[in-house]
């Protein structure tokens, strides 16, 4: 007898790999119902861009500190 299966949005992965466990098993004639949530993919892309931006800001700040420390040691800053 044919069954109807529902795929939960709680079990989501963003990579395709043979090591992932199957979330359901179906037989011929079964129906699968998916709930599509587009915001998750957009949110993932936005989150990755935010992380890259934070990393870039962190690197720029470290480079600034290195340059500033060098200038202080060489007494190249007139207001100190």
Please render the helix and strand layout as text.
Layout: E1 4-7, E2 31-34, H1 38-73
Parallel strand pairs: 1-2
Protein architecture, described:
- The protein has 80 residues and is mainly alpha-helical.
- The chain has one domain.
- It has one helix and two strands, in the order ββα.
- Strands 1-2 form a two-stranded parallel ribbon.
- The model has no long low-confidence stretch (mean pLDDT 77).
Low-confidence stretches: none
In percent, how helical is the residue content? 40-55%
Please state roughly what percent of the residues sit in beta strands, choosing from under 5%, 5-15%, 15-25%, 25-35%, 35-45% or over 45%. Answer: 5-15%
Mean pLDDT over the residues: 77
Order of H and E elements: EEH
Q: In whole angstroms, how far apart are the ends?
A: 84 Å
Largest sheet: 2 strands, parallel
Total count of strands: 2
The best one-word shape is: rod-shaped
Oligomer: single chain
When the domains are counted, the total is: 1
* Helix-strand category: mainly alpha
Brief summary of the model shown:
It is built from one helix and two strands; from the N terminus they run E-E-H.
Descriptive tags:
80 residues; mainly alpha; two-stranded parallel sheet; 1 helix; 2 strands; 45% helix; rod-shaped
């Amino acid at each position: 007898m044919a069954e109807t299966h529902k795929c939960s949005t709680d079990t989501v992965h963003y990579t395709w790999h043979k090591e992932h466990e199957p979330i359901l098993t179906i037989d011929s004639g079964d129906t699968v119902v998916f709930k599509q949530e587009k915001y998750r993919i957009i949110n993932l892309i936005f989150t990755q861009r935010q992380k890259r931006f934070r990393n870039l800001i962190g690197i720029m700040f470290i480079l600034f500190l290195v340059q500033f420390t060098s200038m202080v040691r060489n007494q190249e800053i007139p207001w100190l």
